[in-house]
Amino acid sequence: MKCDHCDKHALVHEIVIRNGVSAEVHLCPEHAIAAGYPLPIESPIADIFPQLAAAVKVEGARSKERSQTCHACGLTFGEFRKTATLGCPACYDAFMPMIEQMIERAQAGATHHVGRAPTGGAEAERSQVLRAKIMRDLELAVASEQYERAAKFRDALNALDAPPP
Question: What is the pTM of this model?
Answer without folding.
Answer: 0.30
